[in-house]
Amino acid sequence: MAMKVASIRVHPVKSTAIRRVETAEVGFAGLRGDREWMVVDATGEMVSARVLPELFTITASTRSTGGTTADLRLEAPDMPAIELAHPVDGAEDVRLFGKKHLLARPVGAEADTWIRAALGREDLSLVWCDDPTRRRLTLGREGDHAAFQDGYPVTVLSSESVAQVNEWICEAALERGEPVPEPITADRFRPNLLVDGVHAPFAEDAWERIRIGEAILRKAKLVDRCVMTTIDPTDLSRGKDPIRTLARHRRWDGATWLAVHFIPETPGAVRIGDPITLM
């Protein structure tokens, strides 16, 4: 079976609900519309679903995802939808993981009031990445940049790798005399591009340079996984997997690993069904 794109995922506001699309434009900062907006606390620190899983319940739409003609539309349970425009001025210092300092534009009081009501915290604000070229990447070349992605612009994962993780989870449950759990989906790992047809689980680890559709991507690093993967994005329940299982089979250098970060070299459109070519 040929390697191909199985699913394309965009996350307009960092840590909000996954938006699946049929096609996407890959720019130098990642998929167009991906993680260009972010929720921060009163100090400017990123607030993600690691600490506030309720972010998963917010659905964000843009022109890239469809469903709105506004720059951003937000929906959440028991909340009226709100449509927002890109802010045209203002700048504030924001941080990712307490150390990556970036400039962003505050979206404004209307957006902040909505976010605070939806998430039940009065210290939250919404910001927009107006210029991703200001951000330099640790393992990037001169000019490489990203918006509010954790590390690098595009994340790629294979269905075969997810299937292997689930097989390991089932084996471990049987060893412990526990019921076999429901399979964990790729949603736990929030890849931008989920691919099918690789020759073996984790084959993507070795991909150094790939062509997908019109885009050419260069490997930055493997993705070290965090506690956010242990939160079910549908019901917000928490468990020990997949981190427990990854720690058993995919742990080195003090971290657990799954999926690969890539940096775009050549922008262009990607579509479901596009073949993946190793270069």
UniProtKB/TrEMBL annotation:
Ranked from the top, the taxonomy reads: Bacteria, Bacillati, Actinomycetota, Actinomycetes, Micrococcales
In which domain of life is the source organism classified? Bacteria
Q: Which Pfam families match?
A: MOSC, MOSC_N
Organism, by scientific name, is: Mobilicoccus caccae
Q: What is the protein's name according to its record?
A: Molybdenum cofactor biosynthesis protein
Where in this chain does the record put each MOSC domain? Answer: 124-279
Task: Please give the InterPro entries that the UniProt record associates with this protein.
Answer: MoCF_Sase_C, MOCOS_middle, Pyrv_Knase-like_insert_dom_sf
